[in-house]
Amino acid sequence: MDAEGLVASAAINLGLALVALSLFSLLKKQPGNAPVYRPRRMAAGGDGGAGLLPLGHGRLTPSFRWIGAAFRLSEEDVLRRHGLDALVVVRLFKFGIKCFTVCSVVGVLVLAPTNYTSEGRADIRRSNSMELFTVTNVTRGSDRLWEYKEITRRRIDHLKYHCKRPDQYIILVRGIPMCPDHGTYGCYVDHFFSKHYQTYQSYQIVHDIGNIEALQKLASSIDKQIKRKRETRKCNIWQRIWFKFTSEAITIHRQEEKMKDVQHAIRLLQCENMLKQKEVPVAFVAFKSRLDAAHAAEMQLLVNPLSLVTTYAPEPNDTIWKNLAIPFWRMAMYKLGVFVAAFLLTVFFTIPVTAVQGIVQFEKIKRWFPPARAVQLIPGLNSVVTGYLPSLILNGFIYLVPFAMLGMASFEGCIANSQKEIKACNMVFYFLLGNVFFLSILSGSLLDQLGESFTHPKDIPSRLASAVSAQSDFFITYILTNGMSGFSLEVLQFGLITWQFLKAHSLGHSKEPYLYGFPYYRVVPIVSLAILIGVVYAVVAPLLLPILLIYFLLGYAVYINQMEDVYEITYDTCGQYWPSIHHYIFLSVTLMQITMIGLFGLKSKPGASFGTIPLLVFNILFNEYCKVRFLPTFHHRPVQVAKQSDELDEAEGMTCDLDDAISAYKPPWMRPMNLESGSVQPLNV
């Protein structure tokens, strides 16, 4: 890619970012857009209009004060309002800001001038290529974190002081044997835990109710339709006409009759006799002490390891109830199916990545397909095609990947949404690592040399290093598009604001907030890939570093704003995302060091190449130390912390209402449904 292509990509992305951010700051000030831009505040009980200016006082002019407010928000405020998982995401952005601030200074002031002033290849200078600023231009023979500990400390403090939650006193028990005397699972649970644990309180058995959840969703949908049709009668004449010709051909009376049938079916499934027939060998068990709950969750309770299998209970709002009834043997089949599906998606994704790299290698396309030279007849079009179009297409496909992986992870049988999203997070990262990073390199500049690499295996590190440096311009445009355009569209919420506009001018104004959970599975892997690209290319292409710094600064401001106003924090795993993030950063540093070994060899500097090997060894040893020293704290809850928390509660006279705690673990289908047309109470028969 030449300099014109990079400038075109930067100009387009910067223009889109300014337009999107200006629109966002303007639209956010309008009270009618509160369901899109302030749903979290609306759901918390406010009207979403807090902080809005009266008309004529800046409401019709864009401003960027929200960016300053995002940077003024302290970590303690993030932890208190949104939990430790949100703080982990904030720390990920801060790591990128701090790391690439230092790297940018060194890269722009030292490495880029060194690369540019080197007596490199004449063809690069003639083509005005951006490779002038990369290590590719350096001739052969030229002479030219302890974050894991901090998050671990935060996790322990969070468990000890910040979390007085039901899941600290409750465990999940699976594989419960049938009571030989009474023939029920609940009886066995009660006898076993009352015999072996003095602080045992009670239990809540789990039922497999089948399609009752679908019936409740249907009842809720019908209830919303009835409510909307009643509100439409109050609309103006044009909205009445629009509704008359576009709504379903069914009267409110028929909808109400259908609602009665659904409610009756739900009551039948909720009756006590039906529940007894649908018991499954799974239960939530409550203790009066965190210490005994931790002991029971960590220990093997019976000689048979497949009976009375205990784990920490997920939060009530985090639990996936339908997956609790899945037996162990079926889980292995589901995991195999998810692996096969992810593999097939990875193979399918090679098609768009290869096509994108074909656009990047436009000079080769013109040689193979002469009619493509017509693009050069339009001034500036060639720069747009090679500079902006490839990254736009790739980011468009990447946007769909997290949702696809989350859907696949849903079939694996995870018992909590947090487990599902952590699984999806890992799947997305490795997918991006293989398809976006490695495949872009292979399909871009290494394909021409694969034959020689197979015949001369010892040259693979140097050829890989050469391929990495040759693809630096593509990754610069990728970061530009993903950061400038991606973050700007994220804060603008273009799809939701468009839908809100259409609803307001067709069905009437709706004040129902568009409230969704924070998308950890999408944010964490994509930002981690940006860190990986930055670390690998820090020495190879130093001009990428200031762009990455802008990427993390903008991303930090955007997602602080989204946490405060838009997304709901639906669960808090007390920092369980951090081990995955640490592993991603470890892979980034490892790839960078391997690339440097090959790169120094490529530049005929064997001493520097061998000198990098000890750094790689120390990096691996440090990662192993972190696994031994810090990782177990994220997989277990220390008994010491549980004991201290119990003693602290006892000293302060604070106790957890365990009756309320265990009742929180009643599945949604055992609770009354509060609908506009009346609540649905279970039948006690």
TrEMBL record:
Q: Which GO terms describe its cellular component?
A: membrane
Task: State a single Pfam family of this protein.
Answer: RSN1_7TM
Domain of life assignment: Eukaryota
Which ranges carry the CSC1/OSCA1-like cytosolic domain? 168-323
CSC1/OSCA1-like N-terminal transmembrane domain sequence ranges: 6-146
Q: What is its main location?
A: membrane
Q: Which terms are listed as keywords in the entry?
A: Coiled coil, Ion channel, Ion transport, Membrane, Transmembrane, Transmembrane helix, Transport
Tell me the Gene Ontology biological-process terms attached to this UniProt entry. Answer: monoatomic ion transmembrane transport
Bilayer topology:
Multi-pass membrane protein
Q: Which residues cross the membrane?
A: 6-27, 336-360, 392-415, 427-447, 475-502, 514-537, 581-602
InterPro entries tied to this protein: Csc1-like, CSC1/OSCA1-like_7TM, CSC1/OSCA1-like_cyt, CSC1/OSCA1-like_N
UniProt subcellular location: Membrane
Coiled-coil residue windows: 212-272
Is the Ribosomal protein keyword given for this protein? no
Domain CSC1/OSCA1-like 7TM region: where? 335-600
The Swiss-Prot or TrEMBL record describes its family as follows: Belongs to the CSC1 (TC 1.A.17) family.
What PANTHER family does the annotation carry?
OS01G0950900 PROTEIN, PROBABLE MEMBRANE PROTEIN DUF221-RELATED
The name under which this protein is listed is CSC1-like protein
Origin species, per record, is Urochloa decumbens
